[in-house]
From TrEMBL:
The keyword Cell membrane does not apply. GO terms for biological process: intra-Golgi vesicle-mediated transport; protein transport. InterPro entries: COG8. PANTHER family: CONSERVED OLIGOMERIC GOLGI COMPLEX COMPONENT 8 (PTHR21311), CONSERVED OLIGOMERIC GOLGI COMPLEX SUBUNIT 8 (PTHR21311:SF0). Residues 282-302, 340-364, 463-488 are annotated as: Disordered. This is Conserved oligomeric Golgi complex subunit 8. It is a peripheral membrane protein. Residues 282-293 have a biased composition (Basic and acidic residues). Belongs to the COG8 family. It comes from the Eukaryota.
Length: 488
């Protein structure tokens, strides 16, 4: 029925609508028309169609107002659909052509970075990853030389303090250095650890210099000296190496000699503080020599008071400092009995060195420095040379016999004080009168007179102390006690 109606109505329909004959809504509407009456077709159907058209128009307007952007986008996409399909086809072709090449690269990558075989790239990557994981530890290791140098500098700045902070700072520096050396032992082939160890060695050299400088300090006490020497033994063990026969201990080795040199430098600097008095004594020496050349007593020097002041102060400092140096050395380095016997600069030191030389003739062929005498064996001799040289130069300026005897007595007490440590040089002073220098002709007789008076005083002191003069042992002990008491 619908087909017959469509054939009747097709001449009156537009061409666009004629193409919609197969449209389901069109067929449905044509099937509905025969069911309507003629009156309905003439009256209500046109109104219903107009109302439906108006409702559809409003719906289209609302839809276009609400979704116009989507319409525009869809229209654009629809217009570009042809070119998009062409591009998609081309890209699909390229992807299909690239799959074999991608497969080849994947196979090559798998074979190159396989864990089954050794690969330098993988090893390098492992090292980089390991470095990334241990960057904090490496940073701590790199900071060790800076921390050590800072600790050493802080200890040097606080070296004048007598508290525990000075000791704690140096102990912390030594602990850091020991930790670095332990790292070097664990990782001997690591360039980083070797570089850190080299920087630590430089810091330890500075610390060694600071400790050696500390040994030259004024009024060095036994505790500070032992502490400083102990640190030097840890920092520079080569200084404490044995130099004696067969590797035996020889008075502290080079460390003992360094200690004596530092204390000698302190003694010399202390004596140099007497330069104003020495200059006055030199002026009196010049006046004495001019007066001796002119053979005239008028206008020449007669007193020598400035020389007396200089020598008195010089002997006081020499006595105090020389006794302190030798005493500190003996207490710090604790030499054995053979070295104690060798400390006397006269006969015992020569005998000990002779025995050492005879017993090590074979070792001398290998290393001649193995037979060097202990540092303390020759040190008192050098001290005595300083004192005798000063006495030989300035003692002739003093013409007052009482003043000369007072100075010689002071020198005798100094010899007795040093003699308590094995360095008595009283007999060496008798040789000053045999040098032929002007003004020292009667020095030997004056020295003998002083010695005679001193022995008489020692005899009286022996009686006071209750010693038995008939016993040789008691006499020698009493003489030592009297000498020590008089020297004090």
């Amino acid at each position: 029925m619908a087909e017959h109606l469509y054939e009747l109505l097709s001449p009156h329909l537009p061409s666009t609508e004629a193409n919609l004959s197969k449209d389901p809504p069109t067929i449905q509407y044509l099937n509905r028309l025969p069911t309507l009456s003629l009156q309905a077709l003439q009256t209500t159907e046109p109104q219903s169609l107009a109302q439906s058209a108006h409702s559809n128009l409003l719906s289209l307007q609302a839809l276009s107002n609400r979704s116009h952007k989507s319409f525009i986008t869809s229209a654009d996409s629809l217009s570009n659909l042809h070119s998009s399909i062409a591009n998609l086809k081309r890209q699909a072709q390229e992807l299909r052509d690239g799959i074999p090449k991608l497969d080849e690269e994947a196979v090559r990558f798998s074979s190159k970075y396989s864990r089954a075989a050794e690969n330098a790239t993988l090893e390098q990557r492992k090292k980089v990853m390991r470095l990334s994981r241990n960057v904090d530890r490496i940073s701590d290791i790199l900071e060790l030389p800076t921390l050590l140098a800072t600790t050493v500098s802080s200890a040097a700045a606080n070296s004048g303090n007598t508290g525990t902070s000075f000791s704690t700072t140096y102990s912390a520096a030594l602990d850091l250095y020991a930790h670095i050396k332990r790292l070097q032992t664990l990782y001997p082939d690591s360039p980083l650890v070797n570089d850190v160890a080299a920087q630590a060695e430089d810091a330890m050299k500075d610390m060694t210099s600071n400790l050696i400088t500390a040994l030259r300090a004024q009024n060095l006490r036994l505790a500070a000296g032992m502490r400083t020497v102990g640190w030097l033994r840890r920092v520079a063990p080569e200084l404490d190496a044995a130099i004696g026969e067969g590797g035996a201990s020889n008075g502290g080795g080079a460390l003992g000699a360094t200690f004596l040199i530092c204390r000698l430098a302190n003694l010399v600097s202390t004596l140099e503080a007497l330069d104003p008095l020495r200059e006055l004594a030199d002026q009196e020496t010049q006046r004495r020599t001019r007066g001796s050349d002119q053979k005239s007593g008028t206008g020449s020097w007669t007193a020598g008071h400035q020389t007396e002041k200089y020598l008195k102060r010089y002997i006081e400092i020499f006595r105090e400092q020389s006794f302190a140096v030798v005493s500190l050395y003996k207490n710090i380095f604790t030499p054995d009995q053979s070295e104690t016997d060798a400390t006397a600069p006269g006969l015992r030191g020569i005998d000990a060195r002779t025995k050492t030389a005879q017993s090590s003739q074979t070792d001398r062929r290998l290393d001649p420095f193995q037979c060097l005498p202990p540092a303390l064996a020759t040190f008192p001799t050098h001290l005595v040379q300083l004192l005798t040289g000063t006495l030989r130069t300035y003692l002739p300026n003093i013409q007052d016999k009482t003043a000369r005897e007072s100075l010689l007595t002071q020198v005798l007490y100094c010899a007795a004080s040093l003699g308590r440590l094995g360095g008595d040089f009283s007999m060496i002073l008798t040789e000053l009168g045999d040098t032929g220098d002007e003004g020292t002709e009667g020095f030997a007789s004056e020295w003998e007179e002083v010695m005679r008076k001193h022995r008489a005083l020692a005899g009286r002191l022996e009686q006071l102390t209750g010693a038995n003069p008939t016993s040789p042992t008691g006499s020698s002990k009493g003489t030592l006690q009297a000498t020590s008491l008089a020297a004090s």
